[in-house]
Write a structure and sequence with these properties.
There is one protein chain. The protein is an all-alpha fold. Helix 2 packs antiparallel against helix 4, helix 6 crosses helix 10 and helix 10 packs across helix 11. It is globular. The relative contact order is 0.14.
Amino acid sequence: MKKIRTAAIVCWQQMKIHYTKGKTFLVVCLMFFYIRGIVLPLSVFSEALQEPITPWTFAVLMNDNLFPFVITVFYIIWVCDAPFFTPMHLYMVGRCGKRVWMIGEILFLCLNSAFYTAVSFLLMIFCSFPRFGFTRSWGKILGTLAFTDASGEYVMPFEINTTVLNRFTPQQALFYTFLFMWGFFLFMGLLIFLFNWLTGQFVGTAAAFLLSALDVTITNMLSVRWRMISPVSMMRISTLSGGFNPSLKYVLVFLITGNLLIAAAMIFLTYIKKN
């Protein structure tokens, strides 16, 4: 129990350091301007229809061909300096031991990916004001854009995948979007941490950038079979059709197994890695 409390303190200290960095505020500002640019034409269309922009819009945006890639790149920048060594690092490791320190860092990455997902969603809502509103259904705006040529007339900077509207309720779509964003951002964060720590270079960060770009490459060049190893592709619930595409069960197994294996490797390596 004492070790768990100590790991929680390590996590808390890391959160205080991370969320007061200039880089963190810069990423939030860049996300705001990017999401604002996406939502602005939607606000114009919302005013023309006199219908609100619903929270379900976020799930639709996360199934666009470009939006999830950009949001993932922002997250990689958010955690690119893993393993987050600070002037307090040696003191903390000396006080609590490497294994407890590592567990605290893993806990931080779990919370950090959830926090980043929440920030992305809240920025979309903030950028939607004063046109934001709530409905139980997908709403007239998304339905009109998905099934008519209105998106071309109003020059929307994103595509609405009709598969999402046809296969999922708004609540299901948003739930799975949150779950997969959290899970795959955690996966990316653990991957970056592990390989940056092992090599002492930004190898993990480079690998994460390559993985994030895989989805865009699949859309334009590669076979859909590559979606089976593409985190951004699996984050998009419109691709979960089975066959050559990943299924819902496959993605859940991938997330659980992948995150547990990387976390276990990080803890195991504290036994054999000297620094």
